[in-house]
Structures are given as structure tokens and as C-alpha cells.
Amino acid sequence: SMISVGFKLPKKGVLFSVGTVADKAEMVGVAAAFAKMGFKIFSTEGTAEFFKENGVKASGVAKLKVKSEELKVNADLIVIDPPRAGLQTEKVVAMISEFGCERIVYVSCDPATLARDCKWFAEFGYRVVSVQPVDMFPHTFHIENVCLLEKVGS
Does residue 109 carry a catalytic annotation? Predict the structure, then answer.
């Protein structure tokens, strides 16, 4: 669905940080698709192990608490899919922004927390390029949104 909304593929690698096992299971297919196209997959250690157990070669990096220059990750895209509460603090947005990636794909199940977090990303030099709602749960009020953020000046 990212490509159908005009998403440009990254040049170097993709960084994944996924929380729950259920979320990791959903993202393993996305990671596999990027890997199949020849992109290097980076992720936090726990996610890397899960991806490897499910047939996706991924390089694990230290926890996101570590400064981006210490990670030595050469990714230009981050895919985030936080829980309903979103990223929860501006500090988390600041840590993600430190990577300096050109693009961030933010998958959200709550439009209100997506809007809040996008406002925080704007404060760190990102702009919303597009938002694509996806009705994965017909006949309910639940809606997923895929948001593409881009570093201003990229």
C-alpha cells in the first residue's frame, strides 16, 4: 500500500523498531518484501531476532536509547507502528528524529495520536507528505492510517 500512495523506495536500508510480538508478526512480511528488493534491514535486537527466526535477514542495533551516531546505521527510512497510544512522548519522537532519515512511514490505528505525533515530528524538521486511511476492520469504527513523513529539504 505504501507504493500505491506514491511512496519512494529507500536507497540504502530500512530501520524497523516494533514492540509487541503481534506487531512483529505483521511487519515481518513488510521487512521480507524490502529485503527481497535488495535493501538491508536494520532493527532493534529483539525485532532482528524475530525477523531472523521468520526467515528475514536483519542486522540488530542497540536499543533506541543509544544516540544515532553510535548506531552506525545507514538507513534512510524508518517504519513505525506504535500501539494505540502512539509514541506517547516528544522525547521518543526526538530520538527517532536523531537518525536523520529522509522518510518515516508511520502506521497508526488512532488518528488523534497520529496528529499529535506528526505535530512533534514537524518540530524536528519533518512534514507530512501523505496519509492513506486503510479500512482493515469493515463495519467497525477502527481505521488504520499509513502516513509518510519526509525530512524538510530532502
Answer: yes
3-state secondary structure the chain: CCHHHCCCCCCCEEEECCCCHHHHHHHHHHHHHHHHCCCEEEEEHHHHHHHHHCCCCCEEECCCCCCHHHHCCCCCEEEECCCCCCCCCHHHHHHHHCCCCCEEEEEECCHHHHHHHHHHHHHCCEEEEEEEEECCCCCCCCCEEEEEEEECCC
pLDDT in tens, 53-92: 988 888 776 544 444 454 455 567 888 888 888 888 888 8
- The residue with cell 518515516 is 104
**Cα distance between residue 100 and residue 16, in whole Å:** 14
Spatial distance between the Cα atoms of 50 and 31, rounded to a whole number of angstroms:
11
Q: What is the mean pLDDT of the chain?
A: 79
Q: How many degrees, rounded to 5, is the angle at CA 26 between CA 140 and CA 131?
A: 60
CA neighbor of 126 nearest in space, from 80, 84, 57:
80
Catalytic residue among 101, 109, 118, 147: 109
Spatial distance between the Cα atoms of 14 and 74, rounded to a whole number of angstroms: 9
